[in-house]
Design a protein that fits this description.
- The structure holds two protein chains of two kinds.
- By secondary structure, chain A is α+β, with helices and mostly antiparallel strands.
- Chain A folds into two domains: 230 residues, P-loop containing nucleotide triphosphate hydrolases (Rossmann fold); 104 residues, Beta Barrel (OB fold (Dihydrolipoamide Acetyltransferase, E2P)).
- In chain A, 25% of the residues lie in helices and 36% in strands.
- A six-stranded mixed β-sheet of chain A has the order 6-7-8-3-9-10, sandwiched between helices. Chain A has a five-stranded antiparallel β-sheet with strand order 12-11-13-19-20.
- Chain B has four domains: 170 residues, Periplasmic binding protein-like II (D-Maltodextrin-Binding Protein, domain 2, 3-Layer(aba) Sandwich), CATH 3.40.190; 169 residues, D-Maltodextrin-Binding Protein, domain 2 (3-Layer(aba) Sandwich); 63 residues, no CATH class; 186 residues, MetI-like (MetI-like fold, Orthogonal Bundle), CATH 1.10.3720.10.
- Helices cover 57% and strands 10% of the residues of chain B.
- In chain B, the strands form five sheets. In chain B, strands 1, 2, 3, 4, 7, 14, 15 and 16 form an eight-stranded mixed β-sheet that branches. A four-stranded mixed β-sheet of chain B has the order 9-10-8-11. A two-stranded antiparallel ribbon of chain B has the order 5-6.
- Chain B is globular.
- The chains are: A alpha+beta, B alpha+beta.
- Chains A and B meet through strand 6 and helix 2 of A and helix 24 and helix 25 of B.
Chain lengths: 344, 708
C-alpha cells in the first residue's frame, strides 16, 4: 500500500488546460473517489497517475517518491478501465495472469495467484472462458481480478461500474467496499455518479474545470459543501439555491412578501436541501406545482415567490397541485452571492 | 427498306473485302491504292478492314474455314505452310512478272506459289550520317570504325546481340542456318559455334558495345547521340528525331561472305471461298504491282517487291538491296524451339558463362529436349469409360439425394432462389467453369503442326515423373515448383513484415503528415504492375541501371559498378523479389492499418499498465488481434504471388537459363515460345491449379483449427 500525492499538478494539450493546479494527498489504504461532471478532468487525472498521460507541470509522488517520469509498469499501479479492456484472445485465467507473465513469475506461481483472486471474486468456474463468453458483470469482475492479481500499491478505477445495469451496479458497489476492506488497498476511483462517491469513498475529491472544488469525507461534503458547485453536485435531488438579501435576523426573497427566518446581511445565496425542509401548517407560504412520487417519499415542487423549491415529503402526501402550503426549515446553508463560497 | 436491301444486294455482289493489320502510313497508302482501283472499276467497291495485329492470324484461321472470311488478306509469310495445310488460301496461278524473286521464294510451298509478295522487311545497318561519311564494307572496317567512335560513354555499335533474330546475319555469313529445309538443326555445328564466337567478339570483347542492350536502350542511346552504328529495321526510324542513314550489312571478314539477315515478306493472299476470284485477283495484282507498288513505296514507305518502282528513299533503297541477299524467315514448325535454344546459347556466350563450343552443345541438347517428341495417340476408350463411370456415379448420388423427401421439400420451397441466382450462375459457368474445363481438356491432347492428338494423361506422367529432364534441371517441374515455393515464401515474409512494420510506424503519435505518408506508401500498389516491373528491370541494368549507380557511390574504389544482376540465380531471384516486394507490401500495410484501427486503445494501455513493454505488447496483444485480419490477406497474397507472372516474365525473364522461372511463366513458355505445346502447357496449368487447391484447403483447415 502506498500514499499518492499530487502537488500542484497541471496538464494541458497545447492551449487547452485540462488540469489546473490539482493538490490531493491520498493516505495509504484510503478509498478516494474523484467525482465531477464530464469534461472536468477526472479521467485525465487518473491517467496521469497511471502514467498513460504525461504531466505538464507539478509533481506526482507514489509511495513518497516522485513518479512523473516513471513508466506505467514501474509505478506499482493497477488500473480497471471503463471498457474493462480484457484481452479478447486470452482466457480469463490468462487475462488475470498476464501481468505476472510479463513480470516473469513462474507459471505455477502465477496460476496459484490467479486461483486465489478468482476465488475471492467467485470467478473460479469462468477461468477457462474467453471474455466474449462472459456477461457484463462477469467481465467487470475479471477486470477487478486482473488488478488484484498484481498486488499493486495503488488501484486506479476509471468509471468501473458505469457500464453495468443499475441493480448490478448497486451490488458491485457493496462488493467493492468489501474488497477494499479485505485488501486494505489504496484506491483512486473516478466516477461521475455522486451516489457511487458518497457510498464508497473515505474521502471525495470534487473536480470542476480542472480544479479541486473540495476534498472531504462524504458527510463533510454533504453537510458543509465548500461552494455552490459542490452543494448542487452532491446530494439528490440537488440543493435549492435562492438569491436573498439579508436584513439582520431575517432575509428577503424576491417576489415574496413575507421575510424568511434566516439571519444574514447583504445579498447572499441561501441553500436549502429538499430534506432540510418540511411541509407544515404555518411558515413560508407557497403553491404546489408538481409532485414526483418515489414510493416511500415524494418530491414536492413548490413555487415560493418567483422561485421553484423542491421539498422532500413522506408518502402519502396530503397535498395536491395548486394547493397553498407552508414550509418550515431545519438546516440552512449560506453562500457568497458573487463568489459562491460557503459563508459560516 | 426494299431500296436499302436492293442497294445492299448490288453492293455486295461486286465488293471485294480485304483484311489487313496495317496502321499509319502503310494503311494510308493501302487506302489510296484501293481508291485508285475503284476509280478504274466504277461498278466495284473495295472494303478495307483493319484488324489488330495481335489477333490477326487467329481470325484468319477461324473465320475463313467457316465462310466468314474476306476475299483477300495481307499478312507476313510466316504462316504460309500452315495455311496451305489448313486449306485457308488459294494458290496464285496468274502472272508474276516484275516481282523480285526473293519474295516469291517465301511464298512457294511444294513448288506452288500461294500468295503475291508485296513488301519486305529486314534488319539493315543503320548509322549516324553526321559521324560516318561512308558505311563499312566489311566487319573489320565496321569494328575499326566503331572502335574509333567509342569513348566516354559513347559507343560504336549497339544491337540486341543475344536475340537470335539479330544474330541471324552473322550466322548466315558463317554458313550456318537455324533449321534446314528437312528440319535438321545443328546448333553445335562448327559454323554455328564460329558465329557465336564472332558475336561474342563484336558485342563484348571489342568493348565497342554497351552490355545487355534492349530495344528501348538502343533507341535511347541513338536518340541521345550516344551510339554511331545500330542494327535494326525500318521500324527503328519511325519515332526517331535525329537523322539516320542505312546501309546493307557488311561482308564478314572472317569468311568473305555477306551478312544476311532474315527477311519478312508481306504478301496478299486469296482466301478460300472468295465469291469473285477474278475480281479479287485483279485487285491483288493492282496492289502488288506498278502504280500500287509505287504508291505503297512513296506514301507508305514500304520496301516493295515490284522491281520497277522509281524514286525510292535511301532507306527504302537499302531495304530493297538488302532484300536481295536476305534469307526468308524459316517457317518450319520447330523454329520457335530453335530460337529459344539459340537465345539460350547466345546469352551464355555473351555473359561469358560458357565457351561458344559448350554453349552450342548445350543449346543443341536443349533444342532436342524442347522439340516435340513423336506424339503417340492413346486410345480414348478407357478415358471415356472412366468419365462415364464418374458421370454415372454423380447422377446416382443426385438421385439418392433427391429421393430424400426433406431435401425435395426444401428444394420446392426455395425454387425461386435458384431462379434469382440463375444469371450469376450462368455468368460463372460461361466465364469460369467453361474455360477451366476446356483448359483441362486441352491438357489431354498434344498439339503439333495444327493437329490435336489425344494423349490422355501422358503429359501429366511425363511432367510428374520428370521423364524429359533430370529433376535438378531448371526445365523440370519440380525444380520450378521449388523455386515457386521459395518465391512465394520469401515474398510473403517480406510483404507482411514490411507492411506490418510500416503500419505500426504510421500509427505512432509522433508521425507528422500521416495522410501524406499513407498515400505515398500505397502508391506502388496503385501503379500497374507491369509498368513497375519494367522500371525495376531497367533499374537493374548492369550498365545504365540506377541500382549499380547507387552501388558505385557506396562502394569504395573508382570506376563504375557493372554488376550483372541476372547472371546468377541468387541476384536474379533477388531482383525479382525486390520488385515484387515493392508491389506487395502496400496491400499488407493497408490491411494492417485497417485491422489496427479496430484494436481498442484501452487494450494496449491495459497491457502497458500491466507492465508490458512495446515489444511485449506487440507480441501478446497487437499481433494476436491482427492475425485474424491478416491471415486471409496472407492467403490471398500467397496465391497472387504464386502466380505473379508479370514480375518474373518482365524482370528476370527466367535468367539465368530459366532458373528463376516460376510455374506460371514456365507454362507460358511451353505454350508460346516452345513450338506451341499447348497440351503440355495446359497440363502445367492444371497442376498449378491442383497445387493451389491443396494449399488453400490445407491453409483453411489450419486456420479453422487455429493452428496458424
Amino acid at each position: 500500500m502506498a500514499t499518492v500525492t499530487l502537488d500542484n499538478l497541471h496538464k494541458a494539450y497545447g492551449e487547452t488546460v485540462v488540469l489546473d493546479g490539482v493538490n490531493v494527498e491520498v493516505a495509504s489504504g484510503e478509498y478516494i473517489v474523484l467525482v465531477g461532471p464530464s469534461g472536468c478532468g477526472k479521467s485525465t487525472l487518473l491517467r496521469c497517475i497511471a502514467g498513460l498521460e504525461t504531466i505538464t507541470a507539478g509533481e506526482l509522488c507514489i509511495g513518497g517518491k516522485r513518479a512523473n517520469e516513471r513508466a506505467p509498469r514501474d509505478r506499482g499501479v493497477a488500473m480497471v478501465f471503463q471498457s474493462y479492456a480484457l484481452y479478447p484472445h486470452m482466457t480469463v485465467r490468462d487475462n488475470m495472469a498476464f501481468a505476472l507473465k510479463v513480470a516473469k513469475v513462474s507459471k505455477k506461481e502465477r496460476y496459484a495467484q490467479v486461483d486465489e483472486a478468482a476465488a475471492l471474486l467467485e470467478l473460479t468456474p469462468l477461468l477457462d472462458r474467453l471474455p466474449g463468453q462472459l456477461s457484463g458483470g462477469q467481465r467487470q469482475r475479471v477486470a477487478m481480478g486482473r488488478a488484484i492479481v498484481r498486488r499493486p500499491d495503488v488501484f486506479l478505477f476509471d468509471e468501473p461500474l458505469s457500464n453495468l445495469d443499475p441493480a448490478l451496479r448497486g451490488h458491485m458497489r457493496v462488493e467493492l467496499k468489501r474488497m477494499h476492506r479485505r485488501l486494505g488497498a489504496t484506491i483512486v476511483h473516478v466516477t461521475h455518479d455522486q451516489v457511487e462517491a458518497l457510498t464508497l469513498a473515505d474521502r471525495i475529491v470534487v473536480l470542476d474545470k480542472g480544479q479541486v472544488q473540495q476534498v472531504g469525507s462524504p458527510r463533510d461534503l454533504f453537510e458543509r459543501p465548500a461552494n455552490v458547485f459542490v452543494a448542487t453536485f452532491i446530494g439528490a435531488p440537488a440543493m435549492n439555491l435562492l438569491p436573498v438579501i439579508g436584513e439582520g435576523e431575517t432575509c428577503r426573497l424576491e417576489g415574496l412578501e413575507q421575510a424568511l427566518p434566516v439571519s444574514g446581511t447583504g445579498a447572499f445565496t441561501l441553500g436549502l436541501r429538499p430534506s432540510d425542509m418540511f411541509l407544515a401548517d404555518s411558515g413560508i407560504p407557497g403553491v404546489v406545482d408538481v409532485i414526483e412520487s418515489l414510493g416511500s417519499e415524494a418530491m414536492v415542487h413548490v413555487t415560493v415567490g418567483a422561485h421553484d423549491v423542491v421539498v422532500r415529503a413522506e408518502e402519502p402526501v396530503q397535498v395536491n397541485s395548486g394547493d397553498v402550503v407552508h414550509l418550515k426549515l431545519s438546516t440552512v446553508h449560506r453562500f457568497d452571492g458573487t463568489t459562491g463560497r460557503r459563508l459560516e | 427498306m426494299t431500296a436499302l436491301l436492293l442497294l445492299l444486294a448490288t453492293a455486295s455482289a461486286s465488293e471485294v473485302t480485304v483484311w489487313h493489320s496495317y496502321s499509319g502510313a502503310e494503311q494510308a497508302a493501302l487506302e489510296q491504292v484501293a481508291d485508285d482501283w475503284e476509280s478504274t472499276h466504277p461498278d466495284d467497291r473495295v472494303s478495307l478492314v483493319a484488324l489488330p495485329f495481335g489477333g490477326f492470324d487467329t481470325k484468319v484461321d477461324t473465320a475463313i474455314p467457316r465462310g466468314n472470311g474476306p476475299d483477300l488478306f495481307i499478312a507476313a509469310h510466316g504462316n504460309v505452310a500452315k495455311w496451305v495445310l489448313e486449306g485457308v488460301i488459294e494458290p496464285w496461278t496468274s502472272d508474276t512478272t516484275g516481282i523480285a524473286p526473293v519474295g516469291l521464294d517465301a511464298f512457294t510451298v511444294d513448288e506452288q506459289l500461294w500468295g503475291l509478295p508485296i513488301a519486305t522487311k529486314s534488319l539493315v545497318l543503320l548509322y549516324d550520317p553526321s559521324r560516318i561519311a561512308s558505311p563499312p564494307q566489311t566487319t573489320d572496317e565496321l569494328i575499326a570504325m566503331a572502335r574509333a567512335e567509342t569513348a566516354d560513354g559513347h559507343y560504336g555499335l549497339a544491337y540486341q546481340a543475344a536475340d537470335p533474330y539479330f544474330h541471324a546475319p552473322w550466322m548466315h555469313a558463317f554458313g550456318a542456318v537455324a533449321i534446314d529445309d528437312d528440319g535438321t538443326v545443328s546448333l553445335d555445328g562448327d559454323a554455328q559455334v564460329q558465329s557465336f564466337a564472332f558475336a561474342r567478339r563484336l558485342a563484348v570483347d571489342e568493348g565497342i558495345a554497351p552490355t545487355q542492350p534492349t530495344g528501348e536502350l538502343v533507341s535511347r542511346l541513338y536518340e541521345d547521340g550516344d551510339v554511331t552504328f545500330v542494327i535494326s529495321g525500318p521500324w527503328f526510324t519511325a519515332d526517331l528525331s535525329r537523322p539516320v542513314a542505312a546501309a546493307p550489312f557488311p561482308m564478314v571478314s572472317e569468311t568473305g561472305l555477306p551478312a544476311r539477315p532474315y527477311l519478312t515478306v508481306d504478301g496478299i493472299y486469296q482466301a478460300k471461298g472468295a465469291p469473285s476470284p477474278e475480281l479479287a485477283q485483279d485487285l491483288a495484282w493492282a496492289i502488288a504491282s506498278a502504280h500500287g507498288a509505287q504508291t505503297r513505296q512513296d506514301v507508305g514507305g514500304q520496301a516493295v517487291t515490284w522491281t520497277a518502282t522509281t524514286g525510292a528513299s535511301p532507306l527504302v533503297q537499302t531495304l530493297r538491296t538488302q532484300a536481295e541477299t536476305a534469307i526468308p524467315m524459316p517457317t518450319h514448325p520447330d523454329i520457335s524451339a530453335v530460337w529459344e535454344a539459340q537465345a539460350y546459347a547466345l546469352r551464355r556466350v555473351m555473359r561469358g558463362s560458357a565457351s561458344p563450343e559448350r554453349a552450342g552443345r548445350e543449346a543443341q541438347a536443349r533444342f532436342e529436349q524442347l522439340q516435340q517428341k513423336d506424339v503417340v495417340e492413346v486410345s480414348r476408350s478407357p478415358y471415356i469409360a472412366a468419365f462415364g463411370v464418374l458421370l454415372l456415379g454423380l447422377v446416382g448420388m443426385l438421385v439418392v439425394r433427391l429421393r430424400n423427401p426433406e431435401l425435395r421439400n426444401e428444394l420446392a420451397a426455395t425454387k425461386w432462389d435458384y431462379f434469382w441466382i440463375g444469371p450469376a450462375a450462368l455468368a460463372m459457368i460461361a466465364l469460369v467453369v467453361t474455360p477451366f474445363v476446356l483448359g483441362a481438356a486441352v491438357s489431354l491432347y498434344a498439339y503439333q503442326g495444327g493437329e490435336w492428338t489425344f494423349v490422355g494423361l501422358s503429359h501429366f506422367s511425363d511432367i510428374l515423373l520428370s521423364r524429359d529432364f533430370p529433376i535438378t534441371s531448371p526445365m523440370s517441374f519440380f525444380y520450378t515448383l521449388a523455386v515457386t515455393i521459395l518465391w512465394t515464401v520469401t515474398n510473403l515474409t517480406l510483404h507482411v513484415s514490411i507492411g506490418v512494420a510500416l503500419a505500426l510506424v504510421l500509427r505512432e503519435p509522433w508521425i507528422r503528415m500521416r495522410g501524406m505518408w499513407r498515400a505515398l506508401l500505397i502508391l506502388p500498389w496503385a501503379v500497374p504492375n507491369y509498368i513497375t516491373a519494367l522500371i525495376w528491370k531497367s533499374m537493374f541494368h548492369a550498365q545504365y541501371g540506377a541500382i549499380n549507380k547507387l552501388l558505385a557511390i557506396v562502394t569504395p574504389g573508382p570506376g563504375p559498378v557493372e554488376f550483372d544482376w541476372f547472371a546468377q540465380f541468387s541476384t536474379s531471384f533477388a531482383a525479382n523479389l525486390a520488385t515484387n516486394t515493392w508491389l506487395g507490401f502496400p496491400f499488407m500495410m493497408v490491411v494492417t492499418l485497417g485491422a489496427l484501427q479496430a484494436i481498442p486503445k484501452d487494450l494496449e494501455e491495459a497491457a502497458e499498465v500491466d507492465g508490458a513493454g512495446y515489444l511485449t505488447r506487440l507480441r501478446h496483444v497487437v499481433w494476436p488481434l491482427l492475425r485474424p485480419a491478416l491471415l486471409p490477406a496472407i492467403l490471398l497474397g500467397s496465391v497472387w504471388t504464386f502466380n505473379m507472372f508479370n514480375v518474373v516474365y518482365l524482370v528476370s525473364s527466367g535468367e539465368p537459363d530459366g532458373s528463376t522461372e516460376i510455374l506460371i511463366s514456365e507454362a507460358y513458355r511451353w505454350a508460346f515460345s516452345r513450338n506451341n505445346q499447348y497440351g503440355y502447357a495446359a497440363a502445367y496449368a492444371v497442376l498449378i491449379f491442383g497445387v493451389l487447391l491443396v494449399y488453400s484447403r490445407a491453409a483453411n483447415r489450419l486456420v479453422g483449427r487455429k493452428v496458424l
